Amino acid sequence: MSDRPMTAAVAPRAGESERSAAAGDQATEHAEAAHTPLWVLAAAGLLSCAALAAVCWMSNHLHADPTLQTAARFLHVAALVVGLGAVLAVDWFAVLWLLGRRRLADILNTACTLQVPIWLGLAGLMTTGLFLNPDLTSPLTQIKLGLVLAITLNGLYAHRLGQHLDRYRDQPVPRSLLVQSGVAATVSQLGWWGASLIGFINSQS
Q1: Per residue in 171-202, pLDDT tens?
Q2: How far is 50 from 137, CA to CA, in rounded Å?
Q3: For the CA atoms of 20, 26, 29, 35, what is the dihedral angle to 10 degrees?
Q4: Which of 64, 95, 135, 167 is most exposed by smallest CB count within 10 Å?
Q5: Helix count (H) and strand count (E) of the chain?
Q6: Residue 176: helix, strand or coil by DSSP?
Q7: Which class for 198: exposed (0-12), middle (13-18), buried (19 or more C-beta within 10 A)?
Q8: Would you tell me how many other CB atoms lie within 10 Å of the CB of residue 181?
Q9: Cα–Cα distance for residue pair 166/158, rounded to 1 Å
Q10: Between 12 and 107, residue with greater pLDDT
């Protein structure tokens, strides 16, 4: 008689464990299914390269008057503030997470929230650059264009990396993903600050 209550008490726990495991498997499958397909990211990368090439070609055929150039220069700076400011916020949270002072959920939520201003800032920089009459024969300008392309491709890579990290919100993150996160943040900062510095130098010449 005493064995039956014991069995009845254990059985639901075993069932709950199985249901929890099944729910966990379903959540993992759902997270993997929600990942952006690699072909979409590859297509976005190719379109970004084509867009940058189009901007370079069009900049040689547009002759903006001084008023339009002044407005474009202001909007260029505004786009830089929006994009770089959002990137700084995300990368600062990433540094705090790598130091163990923030949860992974904090960096993922911040990155997701600030994706729009980051991409808007980058698009604004490319669009307003059309009217600034850049000297495409200058080595500094060519380096800046390379940095802009690196920022764009690194942003797509970081997007994919964030989706992988999302599976480890409540688990230890593999060392390989930690290294990749550090590399992505470093490339992001070097690219944005390098492009900003070159833009400042070109504006003084």
Answers
A1: 888 999 989 988 998 999 999 999 999 988 88
A2: 19
A3: -100
A4: 135
A5: 6, 0
A6: helix
A7: buried
A8: 23
A9: 12
A10: 107
The position carrying tokens 């970081």 is 158
Quickly list H helices, the chain. Answer: 3-34, 38-59, 66-98, 104-129, 139-165, 175-204
**Closest to 64 measured CA to CA, from 127, 157, 150:** 127
Q: Is 133 left (phi over 0), alpha (psi -120 to 50) or beta?
A: left
pLDDT at residue 78, as a whole number? 94
Residues 6+ apart with CB under 8 A from 48: 149, 152, 153, 156
At 17 the pLDDT is 45
20-76 tens-digit pLDDT: 444 344 444 444 446 788 899 899 999 999 999 998 899 888 888 889 989 999 999
The maximal CA–CA distance of the chain, rounded, in angstroms, is 95
Is residue 104 within 8 Å of residue 168, measured between CB atoms?
Answer: yes
Q: How far is CA 133 from the centre of its chain?
A: 28
As a whole number, the mean pLDDT across the chain is 82
At 99 the pLDDT is 84
Q: Which of 68-104 are b and which e, b meaning 16 or more Cβ less than 10 Å from the residue's Cβ?
A: ebeebeeebbebbebbbebbebbbebbbebeeeebeb
State the average pLDDT over residues 70-90: 93
Residue 73's nearest CA partner among 127, 123, 132, 124 is: 132
Q: Which one, of 132, 36, 150, 152, lies nearest residue 83 by Cα?
A: 152
